[in-house]
Predict the 3D structure of the following.
Amino acid sequence: MVWGVAPWMPFRDLEQMRREMDRLLDSFFERRPTRGEGVSEWLPILDISETKGEYLIKVELPGIDPKEIEISLTNDLLTIKGEKKQEKGEEETVLFAERGFGPFNRTVRLSRPVESDKINANFKNGLLTITLPKTEEAKKKEIKIKVE
């Protein structure tokens, strides 16, 4: 019986694992999958903050006509809808694309009541800012403590 001797290569398995992780990460960061008719899934990013008297929601909507944006408030749900149209010339062939397009729908549940008749929306340089004034009961009240 003859035994084969192979040189010990401690980093061979690590190298193979590194290649597999690279392949996995490369496939994860590839272009998003498309849904019907070549429209990619796209959701605008948003920030939510508050001041003493209001909530602020800022939504990045570059390349979107403000007339294409709908904002509605139903009970405690603020919904922002719209569509980002694909820009493409007649003779243009797309070779690589990362920018998303298509319809979007973002809904934010408000944790406190707001004055719905005083909500304001402003659109400037691709940034939609929605100002939601707090009701008196939603505003934080400070209670002074007497020290004796």
Q: What stands out?
A: The longest helix spans residues 12-28. The chain has one helix and nine strands. Residues 11 and 17 are 10 Å apart (CA to CA). Confidence is low (pLDDT under 50) at residues 31-40.
